[in-house]
Design a protein that fits this description.
With 218 residues, this protein is α+β, with helices and mostly antiparallel strands. Helix content is 23%, strand content 39%. It has helices at 4-13, 31-40, 114-127, 131-135, 159-162, 207-214, and strands spanning 46-55, 63-73, 76-83, 87-92, 95-100, 106-109, 138-144, 149-156, 165-173, 176-184, 189-194.
Length: 218
Protein backbone atom coordinates (compact mmCIF):
# COMPACT_ATOMS: atom_id res chain seq x y z
CA UNK A 1 0.00 0.00 0.00
CA UNK A 2 1.27 3.49 -0.78
CA UNK A 3 2.39 5.78 2.03
CA UNK A 4 -0.01 8.11 3.81
CA UNK A 5 1.59 11.25 2.36
CA UNK A 6 1.49 9.84 -1.18
CA UNK A 7 -2.12 8.79 -0.71
CA UNK A 8 -3.03 12.28 0.52
CA UNK A 9 -1.45 13.99 -2.48
CA UNK A 10 -2.98 11.55 -4.96
CA UNK A 11 -6.39 12.04 -3.37
CA UNK A 12 -6.00 15.75 -4.06
CA UNK A 13 -4.82 15.36 -7.63
CA UNK A 14 -6.53 12.37 -9.12
CA UNK A 15 -10.16 13.41 -9.24
CA UNK A 16 -9.13 16.37 -11.39
CA UNK A 17 -7.14 13.98 -13.63
CA UNK A 18 -3.24 13.93 -13.15
CA UNK A 19 0.27 13.11 -13.08
CA UNK A 20 3.78 13.29 -14.40
CA UNK A 21 7.50 12.67 -14.41
CA UNK A 22 10.48 13.59 -16.53
CA UNK A 23 11.38 11.54 -19.61
CA UNK A 24 13.66 11.88 -22.61
CA UNK A 25 12.38 12.34 -26.16
CA UNK A 26 8.91 10.76 -25.80
CA UNK A 27 7.00 9.83 -28.91
CA UNK A 28 4.52 12.49 -29.92
CA UNK A 29 0.91 12.00 -28.91
CA UNK A 30 -1.56 11.75 -31.77
CA UNK A 31 -3.04 14.99 -33.06
CA UNK A 32 -6.49 13.88 -31.86
CA UNK A 33 -5.15 13.31 -28.32
CA UNK A 34 -3.48 16.71 -28.34
CA UNK A 35 -6.71 18.36 -29.47
CA UNK A 36 -8.73 16.58 -26.79
CA UNK A 37 -6.31 17.53 -23.99
CA UNK A 38 -6.27 21.13 -25.20
CA UNK A 39 -10.09 21.16 -25.16
CA UNK A 40 -10.13 19.88 -21.56
CA UNK A 41 -8.00 22.79 -20.37
CA UNK A 42 -9.83 25.37 -18.27
CA UNK A 43 -9.11 28.76 -16.70
CA UNK A 44 -8.70 29.06 -12.94
CA UNK A 45 -10.46 29.23 -10.58
CA UNK A 46 -12.43 26.08 -11.36
CA UNK A 47 -14.60 23.94 -9.09
CA UNK A 48 -16.29 20.56 -9.46
CA UNK A 49 -18.14 18.03 -7.32
CA UNK A 50 -16.54 14.61 -6.85
CA UNK A 51 -17.26 11.25 -5.29
CA UNK A 52 -14.45 8.73 -4.84
CA UNK A 53 -14.47 5.00 -4.17
CA UNK A 54 -11.08 3.56 -3.20
CA UNK A 55 -10.78 -0.21 -3.45
CA UNK A 56 -8.03 -1.43 -1.12
CA UNK A 57 -6.87 -5.03 -1.05
CA UNK A 58 -6.78 -5.01 2.75
CA UNK A 59 -10.49 -4.06 3.07
CA UNK A 60 -13.66 -5.94 2.15
CA UNK A 61 -15.53 -2.77 1.14
CA UNK A 62 -14.37 0.35 -0.69
CA UNK A 63 -13.80 3.63 1.13
CA UNK A 64 -16.18 6.28 -0.22
CA UNK A 65 -15.88 10.05 0.20
CA UNK A 66 -17.47 13.00 -1.56
CA UNK A 67 -17.16 16.77 -1.67
CA UNK A 68 -15.75 19.53 -3.89
CA UNK A 69 -12.48 20.04 -5.73
CA UNK A 70 -11.05 23.46 -6.55
CA UNK A 71 -8.17 24.52 -8.77
CA UNK A 72 -7.17 28.03 -7.75
CA UNK A 73 -4.50 28.52 -10.39
CA UNK A 74 -0.88 27.38 -10.72
CA UNK A 75 -0.11 24.66 -8.18
CA UNK A 76 -2.86 25.75 -5.78
CA UNK A 77 -5.43 22.99 -5.32
CA UNK A 78 -8.04 22.27 -2.68
CA UNK A 79 -10.06 19.17 -1.90
CA UNK A 80 -12.96 19.59 0.53
CA UNK A 81 -14.56 16.40 1.84
CA UNK A 82 -18.12 16.81 3.10
CA UNK A 83 -19.05 13.15 3.63
CA UNK A 84 -18.62 10.97 5.66
CA UNK A 85 -16.50 13.45 7.68
CA UNK A 86 -15.39 17.03 7.15
CA UNK A 87 -11.82 17.71 6.12
CA UNK A 88 -9.93 19.99 3.76
CA UNK A 89 -6.64 19.30 2.02
CA UNK A 90 -4.74 22.05 0.19
CA UNK A 91 -1.64 22.21 -1.99
CA UNK A 92 -0.03 25.65 -2.26
CA UNK A 93 3.54 26.91 -2.69
CA UNK A 94 5.04 23.42 -2.55
CA UNK A 95 3.35 22.42 0.70
CA UNK A 96 0.44 20.09 1.46
CA UNK A 97 -1.86 20.94 4.38
CA UNK A 98 -4.60 18.69 5.76
CA UNK A 99 -7.19 20.05 8.20
CA UNK A 100 -9.75 17.85 10.00
CA UNK A 101 -12.42 19.00 12.43
CA UNK A 102 -11.11 19.03 15.99
CA UNK A 103 -7.50 18.27 15.04
CA UNK A 104 -4.39 20.33 14.43
CA UNK A 105 -3.42 20.85 10.77
CA UNK A 106 -0.89 18.47 9.23
CA UNK A 107 1.78 19.81 6.86
CA UNK A 108 4.48 18.35 4.65
CA UNK A 109 6.72 19.76 1.94
CA UNK A 110 6.85 18.36 -1.58
CA UNK A 111 10.62 18.94 -1.52
CA UNK A 112 10.86 15.77 0.59
CA UNK A 113 9.10 13.75 -2.14
CA UNK A 114 10.39 14.83 -5.59
CA UNK A 115 8.23 12.29 -7.43
CA UNK A 116 5.11 13.89 -5.92
CA UNK A 117 6.22 17.31 -7.12
CA UNK A 118 6.52 15.80 -10.58
CA UNK A 119 2.95 14.49 -10.31
CA UNK A 120 1.73 17.93 -9.33
CA UNK A 121 3.53 19.62 -12.22
CA UNK A 122 1.94 17.28 -14.77
CA UNK A 123 -1.45 17.62 -13.20
CA UNK A 124 -1.26 21.37 -13.74
CA UNK A 125 -0.21 20.71 -17.35
CA UNK A 126 -3.35 18.64 -17.88
CA UNK A 127 -5.63 21.20 -16.25
CA UNK A 128 -4.19 23.94 -18.45
CA UNK A 129 -4.50 21.79 -21.60
CA UNK A 130 -0.73 21.51 -22.23
CA UNK A 131 -0.57 18.23 -24.18
CA UNK A 132 3.11 18.55 -25.10
CA UNK A 133 4.14 18.90 -21.46
CA UNK A 134 1.90 16.03 -20.40
CA UNK A 135 3.27 13.63 -23.00
CA UNK A 136 6.78 14.14 -21.62
CA UNK A 137 5.56 12.30 -18.52
CA UNK A 138 3.11 9.78 -19.98
CA UNK A 139 2.49 7.47 -22.84
CA UNK A 140 -0.95 8.69 -23.96
CA UNK A 141 -3.48 6.33 -25.55
CA UNK A 142 -6.86 7.50 -26.80
CA UNK A 143 -10.00 5.48 -27.53
CA UNK A 144 -13.55 6.44 -28.38
CA UNK A 145 -16.76 5.67 -30.25
CA UNK A 146 -19.02 7.21 -32.86
CA UNK A 147 -21.28 9.03 -30.37
CA UNK A 148 -18.59 11.23 -28.83
CA UNK A 149 -17.53 9.14 -25.83
CA UNK A 150 -13.77 8.91 -25.33
CA UNK A 151 -11.09 7.51 -23.04
CA UNK A 152 -7.56 8.65 -22.34
CA UNK A 153 -5.16 6.18 -20.77
CA UNK A 154 -1.97 7.59 -19.26
CA UNK A 155 0.97 5.30 -18.49
CA UNK A 156 3.88 6.87 -16.56
CA UNK A 157 7.22 6.97 -18.35
CA UNK A 158 9.22 7.67 -15.19
CA UNK A 159 10.12 4.62 -13.10
CA UNK A 160 9.70 6.55 -9.83
CA UNK A 161 6.11 7.41 -10.64
CA UNK A 162 5.40 3.92 -11.99
CA UNK A 163 6.26 2.50 -8.56
CA UNK A 164 3.16 4.29 -7.26
CA UNK A 165 0.82 4.60 -10.25
CA UNK A 166 0.49 1.87 -12.89
CA UNK A 167 -1.97 3.76 -15.09
CA UNK A 168 -4.70 6.40 -15.13
CA UNK A 169 -7.79 6.18 -17.32
CA UNK A 170 -10.09 9.13 -17.90
CA UNK A 171 -13.57 8.60 -19.37
CA UNK A 172 -15.54 11.45 -20.90
CA UNK A 173 -18.04 12.67 -23.47
CA UNK A 174 -17.47 15.72 -25.65
CA UNK A 175 -15.53 18.25 -23.56
CA UNK A 176 -16.71 16.78 -20.26
CA UNK A 177 -14.57 14.48 -18.13
CA UNK A 178 -16.84 12.03 -16.29
CA UNK A 179 -14.54 9.66 -14.42
CA UNK A 180 -10.98 8.96 -13.38
CA UNK A 181 -9.64 5.47 -12.70
CA UNK A 182 -6.25 5.26 -11.03
CA UNK A 183 -4.71 1.80 -10.93
CA UNK A 184 -2.01 1.80 -8.28
CA UNK A 185 1.10 -0.30 -8.70
CA UNK A 186 0.27 -2.37 -5.61
CA UNK A 187 -3.13 -3.43 -6.99
CA UNK A 188 -5.36 -0.88 -5.23
CA UNK A 189 -7.79 1.13 -7.35
CA UNK A 190 -9.37 4.58 -6.96
CA UNK A 191 -12.40 5.56 -9.04
CA UNK A 192 -13.65 9.15 -9.03
CA UNK A 193 -16.98 10.30 -10.44
CA UNK A 194 -16.82 13.96 -11.47
CA UNK A 195 -19.32 16.78 -11.85
CA UNK A 196 -23.01 15.77 -12.10
CA UNK A 197 -22.06 12.07 -12.14
CA UNK A 198 -20.75 12.38 -8.56
CA UNK A 199 -24.35 12.40 -7.27
CA UNK A 200 -24.85 8.91 -8.75
CA UNK A 201 -22.24 7.18 -6.59
CA UNK A 202 -23.92 3.97 -5.35
CA UNK A 203 -24.31 3.44 -1.60
CA UNK A 204 -22.27 0.22 -1.96
CA UNK A 205 -20.22 0.68 -5.14
CA UNK A 206 -18.61 -2.16 -7.05
CA UNK A 207 -15.98 -1.88 -9.77
CA UNK A 208 -18.48 -3.17 -12.33
CA UNK A 209 -21.21 -0.69 -11.36
CA UNK A 210 -18.81 2.25 -11.52
CA UNK A 211 -17.48 1.20 -14.91
CA UNK A 212 -21.05 1.08 -16.24
CA UNK A 213 -21.68 4.60 -14.95
CA UNK A 214 -18.46 5.92 -16.42
CA UNK A 215 -19.22 4.42 -19.82
CA UNK A 216 -22.68 5.96 -19.79
CA UNK A 217 -24.61 2.72 -19.40
CA UNK A 218 -27.84 2.58 -17.35
Amino acid sequence: MISGKTCLLLSLLLPWWTVTASASEPAAASSSSQALIAALGQPAPAHTAFAEARFLQVLDRPLVVSGQLSWLGGDKLQRRVDHPQHETATIADGEVTQQRDGKSPRHFSLKRAPQLQVLLDSFVALLSGDAARLQQAFEIRQGGDAVGAWTLTLVPRDARVAKTVASIRIDGVGRQSRCMHMQEADGDLAVDLLGPLAAKMPAEPTREALQALCRGKP
